[in-house]
Amino acid sequence: MSDRYPVLLRLEGERCLVVGGGAVAERKVRGLLAVGATVTLLAPDATAALAGLVADGTVAWEPRRYAGGDAAGAWRFVVAATDDPAVNGRVVADAARVGTWANDASAPEGGPASLPAIHREGPVTVAVATGGAHPGAAAWLRDLAAGAIKPEHLAAVELFAEVRNEAAAAGTTAPRPDWRQAVDSGMLDLIREGRRAEAKERLQACLSSSSD
Q1: What is the CB neighbour count within 10 angstroms for residue 117?
Q2: Over the stretch 152-182, which tens digit does the pLDDT of each residue have?
Q3: pLDDT tens-digit profile of 54-68?
Q4: Fewer C-beta within 10 Å: the chain N or C terminus?
Q5: What phi, psi does 78 have (nearest 5°)?
Q6: What is the C-alpha to C-alpha distance for residues 97 and 152, in angstroms, rounded to an integer?
Q7: 64/59 Cα distance (integer angstroms)
Q8: What is the pTM of this model?
Q9: Which CATH superfamily is 1-115 part of?
């Protein structure tokens, strides 16, 4: 398998298609809904949870089997999640024909667009892929990486976003911080001690020195 270029997609409000109605499709649908995508499900049958999402209007449903060309519509992203690899392959091929990225849930490497193991907390997203070696390995490494991110680390990222937004509101641009300098300044210790205002001042001092 060739190396892949990691990227995060903004799918809020975008039309996405999930082909398949089983447990795998359910996970894919929930992942898309979590980022605000507009999801259409195409499958003759669906899990009770998916049927519930359809019933409350969260997901649109076309209750039929995949027909050639369905994935070649005006979709921003497509997921092939049936229990038939041949069908999934047709879905991916149809999407590729019109330049739409598609994930093949039955392919070890995920097809054209692989979906990594994800952990989200606050402003931070951790994504881990293992080149299709094993989904369990990706989840294990994701959990290890996520466990290394402590509350003070998340708070530090949130503080920078706060300072950046304040600068934007004032019509200026906050310089990029030297993160090593910020960490070594004792900012994280201040956050751990609940002294957030002082930690913000310390970060602002680091930003000021980095812009000199």
Answers
A1: 20
A2: 999 999 998 888 888 888 887 766 667 778 7
A3: 999 999 999 999 998
A4: C
A5: -130, 140
A6: 46
A7: 15
A8: 0.85
A9: NAD(P)-binding Rossmann-like Domain (3.40.50.720)
What is the pairing mode between strands 15-19 and 38-42? parallel
Helix/strand/coil for 15? strand
Domain coordinates in residue numbering, the chain: 1-115, 117-148, 151-210
Quote the pLDDT of residue 175.
Answer: 66
Query: For residues 209 and 202, what is the distance between their CA atoms, to the nearest angstrom?
Result: 11
Taking a C-beta distance cutoff of 8 angstroms, is the pair 47, 26 a contact? Answer: yes
pLDDT of residue 59: 98
Pairing of strands 124-128, 117-121: antiparallel
Residue pair 209/180 in contact (Cβ under 8 Å)? The answer is no
Question: What pLDDT digit, counting tens, does each position of 67-97 carry?
Answer: 989 999 899 999 999 999 999 999 999 999 9
Identity of the residue numbered 83 = D
Q: Residue 68: how many CA atoms within 13 Å on its side-chain side?
A: 0
CA 182, distance to chain mean position in Å, is 27
> Rg (Cα) of the chain, in Å, rounded?
22
